[in-house]
Amino acid sequence: MSRDTPVTPGQVKEITAFSNPVIKDIRALALKKNRDASSRFVAEGLKLLTDALDGGWTIHIVIYAKQIADNPKVQAAASRARVKGALIIETSEKLLSGITRRDNPQMVVSVIGQRWQPVDKISPNSAEMWIALDRVRDPGNLGTIIRTADCAGASGILLVGETTDPWSMEAVRASMGSIFHVPVARADQETFTAWRKSWPGIVVGTHLDGEIDYRSLDPGDKPVLLLMGNEQQGLPDSLTQICDHLCQIPMAGQADSLNLAVATGIMTFELRRHALQLPSPAGAQS
Ligand code: SAM
């Protein structure tokens, strides 16, 4: 017989058995079909839990290792989540390893409700930037791009076609918490192409054969939609045709192309260059 007690919402429970149904449900979130069905995902670490709480995200479950149960920051975050109705679980490091599939797991793991930005609610102001990713495949690339978009002050990410899941543990991990700060929308290619017609600024595509050097573009205060291609195939003709400009990042050496996340970072910071300034040093005379 399991020595675990049944869990009820709003209470701290100790669970150490992998066979516990709540633990089974959390582990099942490793599969996209279960994340889709429940509209939930797993986030690792206290920082991500705190980011989610600060952003008003719905926290369903907080699970932490018994050895850090007395940590005041963990206690504060767990109690904030509990007030909002989250289930709070104390467990073993071994069980956290099983959930996160890591030998050295984070000591706090949360189950959080997904948030999608509806495409038809995207209405950019001047000088705003959105990044559209055509069929992005690699979760590490996607998480890194979300983090980069956050760093550059881009307004959101639009996933086009069949893409990797932004709510997978790998993508969330690579986003380093930026998944809670950068809205993510999705659309199939047909919807995206139709929606693009109402984009009020310029659409900048990137291609290995792009005719414009990316450094020569000056979007001024127009909203920019940056369109990046799939890791293997690049942008198809059907998408290059809807771009106002097709840019190339000049390269030297023998590599065929830049990694998608790196190319997105270069493009994003270049197109956001007017908006990104170092603060003036304290006491500097104007
Ligand atoms: N074999 C693919 C191709 O032929 O396009 C390579 C795709 S590359 C790994 C992924 C994406 O990164 C490209 O579709 C493009 O959006 C961007 N990219 C990579 N290197 C680039 C470069 N030098 N100039 C412009 N875009 C680039």
Describe the structure using short key phrases.
60s Ribosomal Protein L30, Chain: A; disordered N terminus; Alpha/beta knot; alpha/beta; 286 residues; 5-stranded mixed β-sheet; elongated; binds S-adenosylmethionine; 7-stranded parallel β-sheet; 31% helix; 2 domains
**Which architecture of the largest domain does the CATH hierarchy give at level 2?**
3-Layer(aba) Sandwich
CATH topology of the largest domain: Alpha/beta knot
Given helix and strand content, the structural type is alpha/beta
| Bound small molecules, deduplicated | S-adenosylmethionine
Distance linking N and C termini: 74 Å
For the sheet with most strands, the description reads: 7 strands, parallel
Can you give a write-up of this model?
- The protein has ten helices and twelve strands.
- By secondary structure, the chain is of the alpha/beta class.
- It folds into two domains: 12-113, 60s Ribosomal Protein L30, Chain: A (2-Layer Sandwich), CATH 3.30.1330.30; 119-276, 3-Layer(aba) Sandwich (Alpha/beta knot), CATH 3.40.1280.10.
- Strands 8-7-6-11-9-12-10 form a seven-stranded parallel beta sheet. A five-stranded mixed beta sheet has the order 1-4-3-5-2.
- Strand 6, helix 6 and strand 7 form a beta-alpha-beta unit.
- The radius of gyration is 22 Å and the shape is elongated.
- Bound molecules: S-adenosylmethionine (SAM).
- S-adenosylmethionine is lined by residues 206-208, 210, 228-229, 231-232, 234-235, 248-249, 251, 257-258, 260, 263.
